[in-house]
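lol ok so funny story. i was supposed to be doing the assay writeup but got distracted and ended up predicting the structure for this chain instead. priorities right. anyway since i did it might as well share w the group, maybe its usefull for someone
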Amino acid sequence: MILIKSKREIDFIRESSKIVAETLQLLKRYAKAGITTLELDKIAEDYIRSNNATPAFKGYSQAGSIDFPGSICSSIDDEVVHGIPGNRVLKNGEILSIDVGVEKNGYYGDAALTVAIGEISEEKKKLMDVTEKSLYIGIEQAVEKNRIGDISNAIQTYVESYGYGIVKDLTGHGVGKFLHEEPQIPNYGKKNSGAVIKSGMTLAIEPMINLGTHKVIVADDGWTILTADGKPSAHFEHTIAIIDGKPEILSIN
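and the output, tada:
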């Protein structure tokens, strides 16, 4: 069931999403060669808790997995999403995808971005640029009376024009009272398919785009998703609300 939110509920989601956005911008400043992903995780958790909020990912569980131990997901190069923060030191030339979720007042916000560590290759720059632009192209389709498939198709059409692989095993999702709600929002699909978009919906749209194959594998830790061919991946995400028939990005400063 897709939950339609009231203005009051959207304001709560906006507050959580704003903390997410601020946390991501803070981490973006600290994400340099020489720092560990665990150090970034500590910075994020401290900031989130200083805003009387809770890291949404910490302790999150899914079937067959350990509880997620981090406050952020930190995914480097061929790690697509759900990378566990640890003692790995960031190196010049890598790209780092950072995913942050926040719960405050019983409502969630969720967003992600990919950052360059030092000087990166033109190949990685282009992958990041296309992935980020595909997010906004998808958001443009999130208008009342369109369907979820219109978001999916817009992302797919743009990304595949560059020959990149679209991760199909993972999707965007509704967000609000729960971290993951209906509907699922694939990054590929047919126009005029799926649920009708209505005012009051709150959605997390998140293209996960691979330089090579769309195929992914799960690491031994049970969480980290990697590209099957070892090539890099990029990830961008925003929480949005459909207000007066149009999309508004909530996960911004």
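Helices lie at 7-30, 37-50, 122-140, 148-160. The radius of gyration is 17 Å.
back to the writeup now i swear
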